[in-house]
Predict the 3D structure of the following.
Amino acid sequence: RMVEAGRELEPLGIGAGAAVVVDHSSAEVRAITGSFDFWDDRHGAQIPGFAVARSPGSALKPFLYALAIDAGLALPENLVLDLPVHYAGYSPENYDGDFVGLISLEEALSHSLNVPFVRLLAGLGVERFVGALGAAGVTSLSSTPGYYGLSAAIGSIEVTPLEVAGLYAALAHGGSFRPLRWLRDPGDSVPETPWLSEGASYLTRRALARRDRPDFPERRRMSGAPPRVHWKTGTSYGHRDAWAAGSGPDTTAVVWLGNFDQRPAFDLVGSEAAGPLLFDLLEAVEDRRRSEVATAGELPRDLKPIEVCAYSGYPPSAACPTRRRALALREQVPTQRCPYHVEVDIDLTTGLALNPSCRSGRRYETRVYRTWPDRLRRYLEREQKWWTAPPPLDPSCRPAGATQRLAFLSPPDGHVMFLIPGLPTDRQEVPFEVESGGLDSRLSWFVDGRFAGKTNAGERFWWTPVAGDHEVMAIADTGATVERRLVVRGSRSGL
C-alpha cells in the first residue's frame, strides 16, 4: 500500500513517507517502512524515515489532554476559552485562523484547536510535559532546560514515527509504556512503566474515537473509519509534515508523509494525506470480525461518576441551575467550581442588583445569570453575539469589594517590550487589561505610583510607553487591586 501511495502522492510534491505497525498487546513491531520505495534514488528513499525526528503538528495533543486529566487540571466536559491570547510575544492561532469563544475540552481535542491546548500546556508546565514524553521513550528531545516553549503543544517538539508509535501503543494499552520489541521471544517479559492512568487513557481514547470531527478524511466519508478505531492527525507548520496515528482493538499504526529536504507541499495535510493511509493499514491488519464486535467493556476502576454543572462541565457551584454526571479520576477530581454562573438578588421594583448592604426592606428575588470573563464578553461583542448580563448594582448599595478579584491579562507576566524604531513614542501605545470577574465597576490605573487614567472594568487602558522598568497597578472602585511589572526597552537595533 505504501508503494501505491507513493505513486499517488508524488505528483502532489510529496516524496517521502514512513509507516510503523505495532501489536500494542505485546509491544511487537509487526511492520515498518522508512520510505515508499527503497530503490527510488530521487527522494532519499534509503533514509530510514521511521527514525527521523520531525514536527508532529497536533499529533501529541492527546497526551497533553491525558496528562492534564491525570494532574487534576481538567475534565473532558470543561468549557475552555478559545480566544486570541498572547504569551510574551507568542500569539498562537488555530489552523483555520478563527476562534469559537467557548468549547468543551473534549471537543477542542476532536476539532484539534490550538489555543485551548496552548493554554492547557501553560497550566500543566512545559517541562512536565516534555519530561513525560521522555519517560515514554521519546529520546529525540533536547535535554536543555527551557529549550521548549508553549508551542510544544502544537508541534515545536520533534519526534520520530517509531516514538509516536510507542506513545499511541501505550495509550491503547491503558497508559502503560513498554519499549517496542523487534523480535519475538516468548521467554522474554516486556517491562512496563506506569505512564498515564487507565482512566485518563480511557477518556482520551473516547475523545479520539469520535467521528464528528473535521479531520475525518473526505475520501473516507462513504466507507467510514475501521470499527473501534481511535486516531489523531497532525500537520506541521508550513505544511512540511503530515501525520496520522491511531489504534484498533489489537494494533497501533503511525503514518508520516513529507520530504526529507523539508520541502513543503500544499497537500501535506494530516487528515487528507496521511489519514486514509492509516485507515488502510489498520483495516489490513486488524481482524475485522473482532473489530466489529460491539463490546462496551468495563470502565477503568480509577474512574467514578461525579456531579458537574450541566452547562460548564465543572464541579457545580451553588448557582448552577442544572447538573449532570461525568467521569473523573477517583484521586484527581478538579476542585475549581463552575465560573460561569452567578446568583444575583434583583430588586423587583427597579430591576437593579442588590447586595446584603441594601436588601433590607426591599422586595427582591434571586436570579441566576451566566457570567463571562471580560475577554469573552469583548469577543462576543465584536462577533455581535448575544448574551444576558446581570443588571448593574443599585447606586445606593455599598460595593462588595472583598468578593472581586482582579487578574492581569495584558501585559503578560515577565513581558519585555521594545519601542518601535522610527515611530515617535507619542504614537506608540501599550494595552493594559485586567480580568475583573465580570463585575460592573470602574478601574483607576497607576504607573510608577502616578495616576494615569480611568476605564470601565473590562475595557483596555492605552498607555504611551516610556523606556525603563515600571510598576503598573489597577484599583477598582470596590477596593480590589492588582499589580504587574513591565519592562520597556529601546528598539532592538539601539539597545
